[in-house]
Design goal:
The complex is a heterotrimer. Chain A has four helices and eleven strands. Chain A has a five-stranded parallel beta sheet with strand order 1-11-6-3-2, sandwiched between helices. A four-stranded mixed beta sheet of chain A has the order 7-4-5-8. Chain A is 21% helix and 22% strand. In chain A, strand 4 (103-105) and strand 5 form a beta hairpin. Chain C has two domains: 2-118, Rossmann fold (3-Layer(aba) Sandwich); 131-237, 3-Layer(aba) Sandwich (Rossmann fold). Chain C contains 13 helices and eight strands. Classes of the chains: A alpha/beta, B alpha/beta, C alpha/beta. Bound molecules: iron/sulfur cluster.
Chain lengths: 189, 463, 243
């Protein structure tokens, strides 16, 4: 018998006669997004800030200028579809990366990249030491269930909550290990 | 890593006695566990629907285990459709053989690893080493353990038993090219690890990971982490091999909405961990292999009481809150799974034929703190008690328990025994003999009263 | 109300004063207290040490002895939890034993539950002019979910100054046979617990379980701390006249 068949047979023997259970889903889900409710932008900004990331809330028209100000003289990767000219091409020598995102979660201060247009490859948002992410207010949802509902599992996804960190030394959080040490977020309203 | 847990001698009481007398260890563990307990309590307290999430988490896992065959087949189909290759491993040896073969086929002799309990359980690093392949752990704590030729002592923070100055010494001693001016400031230590691993990440062609969750419906694998070493390993190499226990399944994509709330808050005590990676099959041109591991899990599944241990999402909340773990440390459990979950999982996975494994179900005061924090509501005390009934018992203890049972079976016998004790009350020594000396080593014995309650009642009330 | 006292084997043998206190307290509150003489032990030590067979026999004995009472009151959170929480897991579903357990177990109360939930009283008219700290034993806290019932009762005791115990919810390290099977860890837990108790400056440590008090009290006494231990029942039974 192949390992596959044997494991499946063992499983069937093990659970034979066991009862199945209903899954109670009494937790919060399906909450309205920003636009339908007030306050998600503020909550998101506050929660991102809690991770010691830098947050700017900026009217849409002023976003390009804000990006310029944030990037300063950095050599940054600008992924396809971001809509900004003059990016740096070499991953190994880039100082940073600027991206959009797929969805953002207010309650946890999380941004999620699905690496679609404007979001770069997984490596592009990982290797450079600085990540600037532009989040549109209408991309902000209340919590994790609302984010999961919006995402496409067929795409690779990267959930980012603050800069890279470790709690491995005495369980104290220290920012900056292998991922970008600086995360900056512009919320476009 | 040359250190191996298998066949470790000793037993829990002895191992923990040594730990109890190690004041540095006691201090490190107390500090770390109390810090994380506080953080967990505050972020869990933030969610008004924590108990509902916990109930859902428990039920999703129960349902998955009940239908595990169906969901494994579904997962296999989804991963395969997305360009991945699925392998099945009955036990550790088979899993190690598969992984070693896959690495050899790439022609590489070095692999980078993301922290994974499953690969520690099967001692993959040793198996690779025997075939001339070097595995580099990239998680900071794993790196500390690996460089120090040490054992992991915690699920989430394997080097929890080390404080910053010990870590500094290990780095100075064992990390090639480290600056001799390295301080014990945690950011400086993290920076040293960053520099040490940077090149390796960019160079490595093969990575090995585990996974926190696998979604049967979509074939998606999920890894939660903090440092970015996971992202490095999952993203940069050309070949990715993930070794995952068959119980890590979730039926549907939607189920992640529950577990991505339960796990980070229970584990690091954060609203969300810094990075979570999800991928389905072969992504961005990578070669992807999934090794599904049984290694005793189906035996656990067959046990009606014990099977709940398979719901575990390895958050380590039960370790952090456990008063026994806090004082005994992780090494006393002699397994990659320490603490309360280890005390119920290790004897089920390995059996109780060794002295150490047979002592694990007793490594608990049954205080119930673990059950209370467990995000998937595993009734750890219930499983411990059940395992104790199956554990081998020493002959002297068995005889004593038989006598006690015989006395308790009849109130007249009990009354006679009490009267005998009363007659001897003046003779009870300050230090008791035999196994009871364990009591009087640190505690006084109570005075035996002149009369038991039942005799008092008989004299005053029935008359 | 016809109330049966389940004294528990530890109290019966080592702490008869606790039993006497329960009797006088319940009578003061108007209960008709009976002590079924055939009672022995709930079987917890056997079950929790891995001797299920003996434990099941004792559980059967318990259900026979206590059948037919309106309420069974135990001055022990641990033994009450054994009957209410663990007994149902010992019998085969649908068996005669399961039915007997289902009949008796819900009427078994730990003392403070009985006072507050059944007798609906928080002020039992006690007087105890001392500085007291309260340790919520694990089975009271996480098994029976007694919550603040014991401390509500203590707060209503005249003259009593209740001081909070730091880290109160942490296990004292007794754990039944754990105390002798894992003596080093048990003693370390006990030492930390006594340190917290000393920090409160209390004269008396109170709990709803004499088994934990046996361990903590034995440690306090060995360390010559001068702090004494008292069961909740004994404090609640104290009155001004008796002082
Ligand atoms: S048993 Fe529960 S609390 Fe312990 S690690 Fe597993 S999921 Fe977490």
């Amino acid at each position: 018998m192949s390992a596959r068949e044997e494991i499946l047979a063992r499983v069937r023997r093990a659970v034979a006669g066991a009862e199945d259970v209903e899954i109670p889903r009494g937790y919060r889900a399906g909450r309205p997004a920003e636009g339908a409710v007030e306050g998600l932008v503020e909550l998101f900004a506050e929660r991102v800030d809690d991770y010691r990331a830098v947050v700017h809330v900026v009217p849409a028209a002023e976003v390009p200028a804000k990006i310029d100000a944030c990037l300063g003289g950095r050599r940054v990767i600008v992924p396809d579809g971001f809509g900004r000219a003059g990016g740096w091409d070499d991953l190994d020598t880039a100082d940073g990366v600027v991206t959009t995102c797929a969805v953002a979660i207010a309650e946890t201060g999380t941004i999620v990249l699905d690496h679609g247009p404007g979001q770069g490859t997984r490596a592009q948002t990982l290797v450079p030491d600085y990540h600037l992410c532009v989040v549109r207010a209408d991309q902000i949802v209340a919590g994790v269930p609302e984010a999961v509902a919006r995402l496409d599992p067929a795409r690779p996804l990267t959930w980012i909550s603050g800069p890279s960190a470790t709690s491995d030394i005495e369980l104290n959080r220290v920012e900056g290990v292998h991922g970008p040490r600086t995360l900056e977020v512009i919320i476009s309203t | 890593m040359s250190a191996t847990f298998l066949g470790m001698p000793g037993n829990f009481p002895e191992n923990s006695r040594k730990a109890v007398h190690d004041s540095q260890l006691r201090f490190n563990l107390r500090k770390a566990t109390h810090t994380i307990r506080g953080k967990r309590a505050s972020v869990v307290g933030e969610l008004p629907d924590w108990q509902e999430l916990r109930a859902a988490g428990k039920a999703i896992k129960e349902h998955t285990l009940r239908n595990l065959d169906r969901y494994l087949i579904r997962l296999e189909a989804a991963v395969t459709a997305a360009g991945g290759t699925v392998h099945w491993a009955r036990d550790a040896a088979e899993a190690n053989r598969i992984v070693t073969g896959l690495v050899k086929a790439t022609g590489e002799t070095e692999v980078v690893k993301v922290k994974s309990m499953a690969t520690q359980e099967i001692e993959l690093n040793q198996a690779l080493a025997e075939q001339g392949i070097t595995a580099y752990e990239t998680d900071l704590a794993e790196l500390i353990v690996q460089l120090g030729d040490d054992f992991p002592s915690h699920i989430l923070v394997p080097a929890i038993h080390r404080n910053r100055s010990e870590i500094r010494e290990i780095f100075l001693d064992r990390m090639p090219g480290v600056s001799p001016d390295l301080t014990d400031d945690p950011p400086a230590l993290a920076e040293a690890a960053r520099l040490h691993l940077r090149e390796r990440f960019l160079r490595s062609k093969v990575a090995i990971s585990g996974a926190n969750f696998m979604v049967a419906e979509t074939g998606t694998l999920v890894v939660l982490e903090s440092e970015g070493n996971g992202r490095m390993c999952l993203t940069l190499p050309e070949t990715l091999i993930s070794v995952v226990g068959i119980e890590k399944l979730l039926p549907s994509w939607r189920d992640l909405e529950v577990f991505l709330q339960l796990l980070p808050r229970s584990s690091t005590g954060e609203r969300m961990n810094p990075y979570t990676s999800m991928w389905t099959g072969a992504v961005e041109g990578q070669d992807f292999h999934l090794v599904l591991l049984d290694n005793g899990r189906t035996d656990v599944l067959a046990d009606e009481v014990g099977r709940q241990a398979l719901r575990c999402i390895r958050c380590s909340a039960c370790l952090n809150v456990c008063p026994v773990y806090e004082r005994a440390g992780g090494h006393a459990y002699g397994s990659v799974y320490p603490g309360p979950i280890g005390a119920i999982l290790t004897p089920q996975l390995r059996g109780m034929s060794s002295e150490l494994d047979a002592s694990l179900p007793y490594a608990s005061s049954l205080c119930g703190a673990c059950y209370e924090v467990c995000p998937v509501a595993i009734d750890i005390p219930e499983v411990l008690v059940d395992l104790r009934a199956k554990a081998p018992h020493a002959a002297a203890e068995r005889a004593g328990m038989k006598v006690a049972g015989w006395i308790f079976n009849d109130h007249r016998r009990l009354a006679r025994a009490q009267r005998a004790a009363t007659r001897l009350r003046k003779l009870v020594p300050k230090r008791l003999p035999g196994p009871l000396s364990a009591w009087t080593d640190t505690r006084d014995v109570p005075e035996i009263p002149e009369e038991s309650f039942r005799d008092w009642w008989e004299r005053n009330e029935r008359a | 109300m016809r109330v049966a006292l389940f004294i528990t084997c530890v109290n019966d043998t080592l702490f008869p004063g606790t039993g006497k206190a329960v009797v006088s307290l319940l009578r003061r509150l108007g209960c008709d207290v009976d002590f079924p003489a055939a009672q022995t032990c709930c079987g917890q030590m056997h079950v929790n040490t891995g001797y299920r067979e003996e434990g099941v026999r004792l559980a059967r004995h318990f259900t026979e002895v206590f059948a037919g009472y309106d309420a069974v009151v135990a001055p022990s959170g641990s033994c009450a939890a054994m009957v209410r929480e663990q007994y149902p897991k010992l019998a085969r579903p649908g068996s005669k034993g399961a039915a007997a357990i289902a009949e008796v177990a819900p009427r078994v109360y730990e003392l403070s539950e009985f006072l507050i939930d059944v007798l609906k009283t928080e002020d039992v008219g006690a007087y105890f002019p001392h500085r007291v700290t309260y340790h919520p034993t694990c089975h009271s806290l996480r098994g029976l979910h007694l919550g603040d019932r014991p401390t509500r009762l203590l707060r209503n005791v005249r003259g009593l100054e209740l001081v909070p115990l730091p880290g109160a919810e942490e296990c004292c390290g007794f754990g039944g046979t754990f105390a002798v099977k894992n003596p080093a860890v048990s003693a370390a837990m006990g030492a930390d617990k006594t340190r917290s108790i000393m920090d409160t400056g209390a004269e008396v440590l109170c709990a709803a379980d004499n088994s934990c008090l046996l361990h903590i009290g034995g440690t306090l006494s060995r360390q010559k701390t001068g702090v004494r231990t008292m069961h909740l029942a004994e404090i609640l039974a104290s009155t001004e006249e008796a002082q």
